[in-house]
Amino acid sequence: MEATAEKKPVPVNRWLPYWAVFQYDVHQTLRSWVYRVWVLAVLLATVGFLLYRFGLTQEAGVVQQASKLFSYLLQGTVLGSIAFVVVLTGSCISSERGTLADSVLSRGISRYQYFLGKWHARLATVLGAYLSLSVAALIGSLVLVHADVTLDGSLVALATVGGLLAAVVTAGVAVSAMSNSSLLSVASLWAVLYGGGFAASWFLRNSDASPGHVLERLPNILCGYYDLQSLATLMAWSAALALTVAIVGMVFFSRRDV
Amino acid sequence: MADTKSDLVVETFKLTKIYRNRLIALNDVTLRLEPGCVLGLLGANGAGKTTLLRLIIGLHRSTAGWAKVFGKTMTANSADLRRRIGYIPTNPQFPRGMTPISYLDYMARLFGLPADVRKPRLASLIRAVDLLGASGHAIDGFSNGMTARLAVATSLINEPDLLIWDEPTHGLDPEARRSMLDLIKTLAREKTLIVSSHNLSDIDEVCNHAAVLSHGQLIYCGSLQDLKGRMRRNHFEMDLEGEQKGVAKATAAIRALADFKLVNLRQRRLELYLHEETVNTAALAAALNILTENKVALVSLRSVGQQTEQAFLDLVEKEESRGFARIYTADAA
Known about the structure:
The complex is a heterodimer of chains A (258) and B (333).
Chain A: H1 16-31, H2 33-60, H3 66-90, H4 97-105, H5 111-144, H6 151-178, H7 182-203, H8 211-216, H9 218-222, H10 228-255
Helix pairs in contact in A: 1-5, 2-3, 2-5, 3-5, 3-6, 3-7, 5-6, 5-10, 6-7, 6-10
Chain B: E1 10-19, E2 23-33, E3 38-43, H1 49-57, E4 64-69, E5 72-73, H2 79-82, E6 85-88, H3 100-110, H4 115-128, H5 144-156, E7 162-166, H6 174-187, E8 192-196, H7 200-206, E9 209-214, E10 217-223, H8 224-230, E11 235-241, H9 244-255, E12 260-266, E13 269-274, H10 280-293, E14 297-303, H11 308-321
Parallel strand pairs in B: 3-8, 3-9, 6-7, 7-8
Antiparallel strand pairs in B: 1-2, 1-4, 4-5, 9-10, 11-13, 11-14, 12-13
Helix pairs in contact in B: 3-4, 4-5, 8-11, 9-10
């Protein structure tokens, strides 16, 4: 055998594969019809609701409070968005089954990096859209109706709901990484969310840190009346749950055949 | 053979893959690949070729045994090892909505190549594989040939030391197939290659080593010359030219020779089967003398047996005929 000439080693950026997957996924998500329909639906519903309440104030003289109005919007946005978020995240890895091995995982990227890239990209797109729409709705509420919300209350409310949404996104990506088909992963994710929601409402029924109680108390939180400790507990539980699910999903994904 | 294990490019040991306790795709495969080898992976559909390649590259996880590449165990997270491998799958699939430029850029970034390295390289490769005219077109509408060329460019973007190409000539027209084989020959001068193919003449042309899989088991691994040497060498074909009367007379004379077991004449093609112990050169010389005496010209002479295809079929047939003795390796039996 002939001896090969010494090649000059090419400098390799070890985190470039992660960024490549992250950027590609953000690009793909922004172009997907599910994402566009979701954003458009939330935007139209928000604008319609705000105008309706503004009309009530102007025509009927009913005093509208921004805290209640925005809490309705936030709850509606979150609950109405769950179906879209489930589809967006539950299919993010399983839908790429055809090209995943051929085009991506056979290259210089580890499974961990791929999973992290996908997870962070979906978090960025979903939470980015949620925050953008929520901030726009908050500003609309402040401008159009009686402003009774505080800045810190608004930030805490947005962060709390965002934390819950992040847990849902993480569960979606993890289930998608463990499944072979999009349909199966979306169905499984629904089961996990319903099961998880039922378990949380049962075990935390007497606790101020239950997600249901927090959503009910959103108007108070927005006005600055909140128990930081219980909210911090809820956030910590959400983060711990999301992290655990992510690690389980990542380890499972790194051990399966693609 | 390599002096030390660290010299090996690929090494597998008792590699076994069983899918969900339902399908034994690969069974106890042990092979060693030295630098500079061009290994042709042969086997029927479902023999386990793609499974073996996917295990080597870390896309699949072995049920038992291990695969080492460049002296390190390959796992799903061995990104460093895969940076030195160029892979072409069978019927490569590409993400939708990408152009060759954006796709190659994405692939190069997956290999961690910085912009000042990857941009010139991808431009050179697009030019080299003749996709310059289609560099702005969506890959979705590409023909088989264009897809194959893009797959070649992708597998070379990281300047790999090891190339693993799974049926690279599959679905190509003769011209594209010729270009692909020429490229493999060129790359073989400085890289190690594993080429899987159904087309045995392709393997015969470009490979210097062969591995034969049958029902997930490795039944041969060694040089292509050795593989050819295993099969019978007693079957020759001659294409003749001359008067029919002379050809018939010569055939009858050759039949009378003791060295020949069977002599068949079909149109102008003479099939000669020699006895196992016969020295073929002497027997053929005698046959050629008879043809000369009868004024029959020789158009071509070939050994039918000494084709890789024949050797492969013989090997598989022999393995099948061993029955329960397949529990033991061929050498032990």
